[in-house]
Design brief:
Elements (H helix, E strand, L loop, with lengths): L2 H40 L20 E3 L5 E4 L10
């Protein structure tokens, strides 16, 4: 066996390992996305909820979540900030 054949075989093996690692990474990312969707759905943060686009979208008794995703509870009162 010549040195170039060995180099080619090692290169091919390395490429196969890299391709498999990429596939595993994609599967992990897909699973993490599905897990996040499941948790959001179970926590009541599914696709039916969303960030208020403006103050006009905010209503009493809406669930309030922090930017980090912590649930603060329902909105009991709402007073718009005074306009300038």
């Amino acid at each position: 066996m010549t040195m170039s054949k060995i180099t080619d075989q090692v290169s091919d093996a390395a490429q196969k390992v890299a391709d498999k690692a990429k596939d595993v990474g994609h599967k992990i990312a897909e699973g993490a996305s599905q897990a996040a969707d499941f948790v959001k759905e179970k926590a009541g943060m599914g696709h039916t909820c969303g960030a208020a686009k403006s103050t006009a979208d905010i209503r009493p008794h809406m669930e309030v979540f922090s930017r980090a995703g912590a649930r603060w509870g329902p909105l009991t009162t709402w007073r718009a900030a005074p306009s300038s």
